[in-house]
């Protein structure tokens, strides 16, 4: 299930998420039977699981995305390429987080203020970072 994953944290998250999918939606641990199931039935099960995670468990968009990635990884690693991912992803809830909404580059005044507080070494690091970003 976690073949091809490098991070031990990703492996753990995917194992938990995929086990949750098997327990809640598939209600079986028989992976061979799952892989032998028709494509449209598997897609419906995945969509049902996404709906369950959102409506019943109240998970956020990003948490549900981890669950979906674990499911997709399982099917990828087992050479099951028939899933219509675009269709399935349409059932993801809306990303309501403001995580990226507040991201803005520093203004020139903010950079000047940062530089005024820095020693020479830190100034070089800040200015170097600015040059790399431009």
Describe the protein.
It is elongated and about 65 Å long. Helix content is 64%, strand content 0%. It has 7 helices and no strands. The chain is mainly α and 134 residues long. The protein starts with 7 loop residues before the first helix and ends with a helix.
For this entry, give a set of tags.
134 residues; 7 helices; elongated; mainly alpha
Provide the fold topology.
Blueprint: H1 8-26, H2 31-35, H3 39-55, H4 61-77, H5 85-89, H6 108-116, H7 120-133
The dominant shape is elongated
Residues in β-strands, percent: under 5%
Which consecutive residue ranges, at least 5 long each, have pLDDT under 50?
Answer: none
- Helix % is 55-70%
Mean pLDDT: 90
- The number of distinct β-strands equals 0
Radius of gyration: 22 Å
Structural class: mainly alpha
Written as H for each helix and E for each strand, in order along the chain, the element string is HHHHHHH
Query: What's the main sheet like?
Result: none
- Number of helical regions: 7
How far the N terminus sits from the C terminus, by CA atoms, comes to 41 Å
What's the short version?
By secondary structure, this protein is mainly alpha-helical.
């Amino acid at each position: 299930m976690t073949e091809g994953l490098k991070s031990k944290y990703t492996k753990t998250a995917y194992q938990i998420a995929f086990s949750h999918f098997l327990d809640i939606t598939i209600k079986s641990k028989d992976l061979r039977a799952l892989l032998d199931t028709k494509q449209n039935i598997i897609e419906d099960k995945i969509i049902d699981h996404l709906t369950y995670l959102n409506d019943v468990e109240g998970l956020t968009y990003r948490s549900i995305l981890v669950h979906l990635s674990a499911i997709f990884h399982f099917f990828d690693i087992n050479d099951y390429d028939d899933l219509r991912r675009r269709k399935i992803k349409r059932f993801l809830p809306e990303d309501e987080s403001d995580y990226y909404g507040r991201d803005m580059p520093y203004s020139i005044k903010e950079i000047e203020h940062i530089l005024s507080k820095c020693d020479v070494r830190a100034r070089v690091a800040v200015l170097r970072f600015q040059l790399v970003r431009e």
